[in-house]
User: What shape does this take?
Amino acid sequence: MATRSEPTGREQTAHCDASQTLKNVGLAKTTQRMAVLEKLIGAAGPLNVRDILAETRGTLKINRVTIYRILASFRESGIIREIEAGSGMTYYEMACLHNPVHPHFHCRRCGSLICMPPLTLSQAWDWLTRPSDFSVESINVHITGLCGPCRERDDRNGVASKGGNRV
Ligand SMILES: [Zn+2]
Ligand SMILES: [Zn+2]
Ligand SMILES: [Zn+2]
Assistant: This one.
């Protein structure tokens, strides 16, 4: 993490190569690992096991247990980060330089999890390296409220939303 160059912003489109990523961390290249990793690389937002299963099971032989095992190996290798949504559901996203640490917005109605603009590298670095009597090993920020579609549904139904400001 320390040797990485400063990310240039979210408009950056180049992303990791699945095969190279596995090679970098010394994980054997299997069809199942490749399929799961390609879904995570190509995802517009964090995925949960159900999403990954739904997207991969049509093309290869895979089940929930295999996906959990693959995700655990990715997490231990630092390829992905795990996000605990307020709903108790666990989501996963790439932890590469194209996807710097950022907060997540969790919709309390529909459960959708949306990536928010990243912390600057210096902010995150400061948190991770500041000497203190505790050690920050990962940063996990939750922002909870209503997402756009849910908020519009409430507006249409005349439900007063809980004092939230539109972002
Ligand atoms: Zn990447
Ligand atoms: Zn929603
Ligand atoms: Zn995210």
User: Anything to note?
Assistant: Residues 1-12 have pLDDT under 50 and may be disordered.
